[in-house]
Amino acid sequence: MANVSLLAVGVVPAARHWSGGVRPVEPTPGRFRTDIQALRAVAVGLVVANHLWPAALPGGFVGVDVFFVISGFLISSHLFREIQASGRVRLAAFYSRRARRLFPAAFLVLGAAMLLAVLFLPYPRWGATAKEVLASVFYAENWLLAAKSVDYSAMTESASAVQHYWSLSVEEQFYLFWPLALVLVAAVSRRVRSAPDRMLLAVVVLAAAVSFAGSIYMTQTRPEQAYFVTPVRVWEFAAGAVVALAGVRGMGRPARNVLAVTGFAMIIASALTYDPETAFPGWTAVVPVAGTALVIVAGTGAGRLQHSRVTALPPVQFLGKISYSLYLWHWPLIVAAPFVLGEVPTGPHKLAILVLSLLLAWATKQRVEDRWIVRRGGRRQLVKGNGFRRPVAGMAVVAAVACLVAGAGQLKESQAIELAAAGAAGPCYGTAAVGNRDCGDPFAIPVAVPDMSDDNGYWHVPERCGEVPDRLLEGGGPSSCDFSDGDPDAETVWIAGDSHAQHWIATVLALAEERGWNAKWTTLGGCPLLDGVPLVSFNGGILDQIDRDKCARWSRLTVDAIEADRPAKVFVSMYAEQEFIDDGTGRGQDDQFEDGLMRVWQRWTDAGTTVFPIIDPPLNASVRDGDCIVRHAATPPDCAVPREEAMAMNPVSRAAERMDSDMVRLLDFTDYFCDLHDCYAAVGGVAVYYDATHLNSTFARTMAPALGKELD
To answer: What is residue 333's three-state secondary structure?
Structure first.
């Protein structure tokens, strides 16, 4: 988040005349920029409203881009003036000011976020929170999130209480390299006897152009990463720097009024019309960025503008004043709220979160941020002194606490594993309770271990299998686990599909161990196992050509490998609900999916293999709160949803029906998840789901007897 100016309140000091014809844009010397404070208020208001009421303001995330432009303008204004005055930048003083200004409040909220996590969040999230706190305290959170965005197993993780620190990380990285770059340019200009202002302007414009081009390209090819990585955001800071260095001058008040109103309108319009599906931050980010730049340019002249009647009002200025602390506080409260309340926050709850965020932000501004600010000559500025010692000490303390929190989470997970193992011996554990009258209602048995740790991950296989990675895409073979003990008559079985085949591996391997099978499996997250039908989109995101080609190649290799191996059985499953394909014929998704499946299955059945398509389990987080069972472990029926809502599109079953072959046998386990009316998040005292869409592997293992019954 980029709401920090040189003097923390938007005062832009006077500058001397530059040698060339270009000089920094500035208002009347020492004049307080109420328009910049209002921009901060708008920006933080958009972000907070988007997080609390995403449906009402789907594009509120553009507030972060507004902050970036403001930061680029104010910081660059100071740096340009210092270079003009002395030919250099006092880097130690610059970084010291940044540390004293930013670190105390940031570290305070990081500590509070960890406290909230330990007090209210499920213990498996303690470690994830601690990891992101460590990334945030060293201002690398954006890179951690960028890495997670391409890790399929991490895509469905719940947001951490400090995820919003990604934008602070981007800003701090900008602060780190920007002064160095400008000093280097100024030194080169002196060496070649060129006016530093002109060369600085040229370099800033070039940096903006290169970053903008990279932003467009990466948003198209790697949209998940593009949102977080620093290089594709540099142009937004640079836009503010260009305004600082070469803004329009000599403009009359009517024209400036038009610019300001247009700028505010562009920001608000993008917040109202953009949504999570908008390709961002590519060219679409131009609208809020340019709008912010127009407002800043319009405010560089003397005299009040028309919008000041609103933007200079005390409530607006107050919101801009506390915007940094408000940004820090609101998100941890939103993340913790469902666990504090025991339910998904409603409208009144959200208003309470907003009020509490405002109060905490005001207190933090008064007691933490302003601790480093004094008034001198009617102006507010940071106190002088060694700015590194205390911030660095604070960094060390927060990092140490994060390590302790992570360790405590691991200890709790170990205890939960032991508790789950003890419960597994019961006669009503998991799916064993379904159809057992002695167990009562299988969907109402309290859940002893509702929290999901890595031990419940859908990718887990028995320790006996060891590490046998899937090398099919690399020209090798699939993962495998041989339970046959060398029996030449043992059956070979395969499991294949996307991650929704992967979460059935625990079920199949449990049965394979019982029946002495030689089991093999290959999976690729987000990739349906089809023949001749290219995948174009997964989970709402458009795939680039690299991922499309990877999916197509894996599908081809998998189909060929199973056909050549001629196993007795092959189990297939996929998340068709979120996999969108296009064979170019213009036909409906269901028809394309069914035909693609049937061509694959026909090849296998022709080779003598019996195909067992598995209908996907009922939907989870898309129809209920994904953390529902954690909060209602004692009363699992509170998380029930109507059966017709929970069942997803099912081309798998229709393809099996159309095949009409004894060699294609559909496996439908819906009755183990649902009764006649509702579907549940727990069965036999075991949580069904690991995350938003995948089965808990502990639960999946209890499905082995059900699978055996279906096969027999």
So the answer is: helix
| Least confident segment among 291-300, 538-547, 628-637 | 538-547
Long-range pairs of 188-193 with CB within 8 A, sequence gap ≥ 24: 190/87
Helix axes 166-191, 91-120, angle to 10 degrees: 170
Q: Is pLDDT at 28 greater than 80 in this prediction?
A: no
Q: Classify burial at 654, counting beta carbons within 10 Å of its beta carbon; exposed 0-12, middle 13-18, buried 19 or more.
A: middle
Cα atoms found within 13 Å of the Cα of residue 108, Cβ hemisphere only: 19
End-to-end Cα, the chain, rounded Å: 59
Handedness of CA 462, 463, 465, 467 (dihedral sign): positive
Task: Write the pLDDT tens digit of every residue in 453-472.
Answer: 888 999 888 888 888 889 99
Phi and psi at 382, nearest 5°, equal: -70, 140
Residue among 595, 564, 579 at smallest CA distance from 659: 595
Of the candidates 710, 675, 434, the residue with the CA atom closest to the CA atom of residue 569: 710
In what side-by-side order are the strands of the sheet with 569-573? 479-482, 518-523, 492-497, 569-573, 610-613
Distance from C-alpha of 214 to C-alpha of 226, rounded to nearest angstrom: 9
| Sequence-ordered strand ranges (E) for 428-581 | 479-482, 492-497, 518-523, 535-538, 541-542, 569-573, 579-581
Written as one string, the DSSP assignment of 344-370 is: ---HHHHHHHHHHHHHHHHHHHHHTGG
Q: How much is the pLDDT for 552? A: 94
Q: Residue 200: pLDDT above 90?
A: no
- From residue 162, alpha-carbon distances to 48, 167, 332, 412 in Å are 14, 11, 6, 22
Q: Hunting for tokens 């988007």 — which residue is that?
A: 50
CB atoms within 10 A of CB 555: 23
Chain Cα centroid distance, residue 357:
22
DSSP state of 11: B
Per-residue pLDDT tens over the stretch 236-274: 999 999 999 876 666 788 899 999 999 999 999 999 999
Q: Between the CA of residue 5 and those of 67, 87, 175, what are the distances in Å? A: 10, 22, 12
Q: Are 605 and 588 in contact (CB under 8 A)?
A: no
Q: Which two tokens stand for residue 44?
A: 């933080």
Cβ–Cβ under 8 Å, residues 305 and 349: no
User: Measured on CA atoms in the order 595, 597, 603, 606, is the torsion positive or negative?
Assistant: negative
Contacts of 663 (CB under 8 A, 6+ apart): 605, 609, 610, 611
Residues 570-585: what's their mean pLDDT? 91
Helix, strand, or coil (residue 521): strand
Instruction: Identify the helix (H) or strand (E) that includes residue 697.
Output: helix 697-702
Peptide bond into 488 cis (omega under 30): no
Render pLDDT for 551-566 as a digit per residue (tens, 0 to 9): 999 999 999 999 999 9
Query: Which string of DSSP letters, residue by residue, matches 26-67?
Result: --STT-B-HHHHHHHHHHHHHHHHHHH-TTTSTTGGGHHHHH
Position 688 scores a pLDDT of 97
Mean pLDDT of 160-172: 95
Closest Cα partner for 154 from 522, 692, 617? Answer: 692
Q: Which two tokens stand for residue 468?
A: 């046998």
CB atoms under 10 Å from CB of 513, counted, come to 16
Residue 685's φ and ψ, nearest 5 degrees, are 75, 15
Question: The whole model's pTM is what?
Answer: 0.87
3-state secondary structure 397-441: HHHHHHHHHHHHHHHHHHHHHHHHHHHCCCCCCHHHHCCCHHHCC
DSSP secondary structure of 612-646:
EEBPPPPP-TTTS-TTHHHHTTT-GGGG-EEHHHH
pLDDT digits (tens, 9 = 90+) for 201-224: 888 999 999 999 999 999 988 888
So what's the pLDDT on residue 8? Answer: 28
The answer to whether residues 658 and 594 touch, using CB atoms and an 8 Å cutoff, is: yes
Residues with Cβ within 8 Å of residue 154, at least 6 apart in sequence? 148
